[in-house]
């Protein structure tokens, strides 16, 4: 089974201190990484990690290697772009497609510095694959993916074909710890982190300016209306508009 995990970059120290005291992966990302590794142990296959961020996000990519993942990739994006969820989701989808086919794409419920809950849905949309939201348990068999998900009524079981993107909220993972060999390998000079470029030549605008209009400043007589309630204010406004021949 080919599993891909999306991890949020570690924010700068001045931002991180607003959200957690310890340095490193946030709990949501760590849980989903453990889930991927446990699933690999059960079903076999590989675990690949992708991290979106500026060049300093390589730190997060290397930390993932210390947990024993098979491959860790940095998807390079400028600091100013990481706040645009739609742009990040499209970039992540392009990187996943460039890397190759995966059976499951896993992501956590929330980032360290936000809880927009849009990244999973947008990435699944751009990849054109099913989205399984708020999964507490995953099982795979015969090319099918089975999930037990949070719902208003408790838990609902879902079934879908693979590939699929799963937003996981499972917290009771099998305990795992980085081992010395993986730590040494992760930070060895010979260990290179593959980098997926952003395609800076491409431009994506959320809003396109079609026409610019600047009203002319002209002296106007202004009158302040007051009244004891909305009814009285409305009556006074109506009278003023009648006097100005705005209303017939």
Automatic annotation (TrEMBL):
Pfam family, one: ETF
Domain Electron transfer flavoprotein alpha/beta-subunit N-terminal: 16-200
SMART domains in the record: ETF
Superkingdom of the source species: Bacteria
Name this polypeptide is given: Electron transfer flavoprotein small subunit
Protein source organism: Anaerostipes hominis
